[in-house]
Specification:
- The protein contains 10 helices and 10 strands.
- The protein has 279 residues and is an alpha/beta fold.
- It has one domain: Protocatechuate 4,5-dioxygenase, Chain B, CATH 3.40.830.
- The strands form 2 sheets. It has an 8-stranded mixed β-sheet with strand order 6-3-7-2-8-1-10-9, sandwiched between helices. A two-stranded antiparallel ribbon has the order 4-5.
- A hairpin with a 2-residue loop joins strand 9 and strand 10.
- Helix 6 packs parallel to helix 10.
- The radius of gyration is 17 Å and the shape is globular.
């Protein structure tokens, strides 16, 4: 049967993608950021997952404010890089696993989670930047990807508890799939940041590092953190961190932390990154 072997979490800062695309990764400002992913690039080259379920949020690329699903799973054979206003990123087309995605959708919906099924969807930096951080600049991505878009842009976003339980439902779905597949689940977004208003530029190192501790060792308790705590302590865009709980819910209660990285700042955001393996 298919099995979830590991989880990855990472920020998906758009400026990171621009630095990669424009050949600026060796610039002094960016060197510490990319150094934090060197371990992970070597690690994933050894792991060679068959499929990644990649949890991210769309930034008004596939979904406008006219139609915003809380959770949407990409069931297509491929997903093209989105044009976010300055042209699509020069990265490979994302190849999906339509059969597994459809199985996850059926299993999770029958498990009382309502998913929107997307049979056509462009994917923006929220999905492609994490792939670039771990896989570099290949001619094609080395594994298949199932996009799972979560609304953390338009109020109300899903609760951390709902996200954590969705991760557990995804694990049950994957484990009921007959083919022998090595599957990873990635949670992206965050960490603390705010893009507008009087608190624009907010970064909270203490909150971020406490979050990194708890998502490894106390995910159940962390899943009950209310939205107001994220907004108050991590900024309006800090709510993206609930997507990491989908990744964590898909893993075992006990995990092995293979790598942890935290850096301030990248653009106007705190960057966090974890590599977790099922114990």
């Amino acid at each position: 049967m298919a099995r979830i072997t590991a989880g990855v979490s990472t920020s998906h800062v758009p400026a990171i993608g621009a630095a990669i695309d424009l050949g600026k990764t060796a610039a002094p400002y960016w060197v510490p950021v990319f150094a934090g992913y060197e371990y992970s690039k070597k690690w994933i080259a050894q792991q060679k997952p068959d499929v990644i379920v990649l949890v991210y949020n769309d930034h008004a690329s596939a979904f406008s404010l006219d139609l915003v699903p809380t959770f949407a799973i990409g069931c297509a054979e491929e997903f093209r890089p989105a044009d976010e206003g300055w042209g699509p990123r020069p990265v490979p087309i994302v190849k999906g696993h339509a059969k597994l995605a459809a199985h996850i959708a059926q299993s999770v919906i029958q498990d009382d989670f309502d998913l929107t099924i997307a049979n056509r969807m462009d994917v923006d930096h929220g999905l492609t930047v994490p792939l670039s951080l771990l896989f570099g600049q290949p001619k094609q991505w080395p594994c298949l990807v199932i996009p799972l878009a979560v609304n953390v842009v338009l109020y109300p976003p899903p609760s951390g508890r709902r996200c954590y339980e969705l991760g557990r439902a995804i694990r049950r779905a994957v484990e009921s799939y007959d083919d022998d597949l090595d599957v990873q689940v990635w949670g992206t977004g965050g960490m603390s940041h705010q893009l507008q208003g009087p608190r624009a530029g907010l970064i909270n190192r203490q909150f971020d590092n406490a979050f990194l501790d708890r998502i490894v060792n106390d995910p159940e308790g962390l899943s009950r953190k209310p939205h107001l705590d994220y907004v108050r302590e991590a900024g309006s865009e800090g709510i993206e961190l609930v997507m990491w709980l989908i990744m964590r819910g898909a893993l075992n209660a006990k995990v092995t932390q293979k790598h942890r990285f935290y850096h301030v700042p990248a653009s106007n955001t705190a960057v966090g990154h974890l590599v977790l393996e099922n114990a």
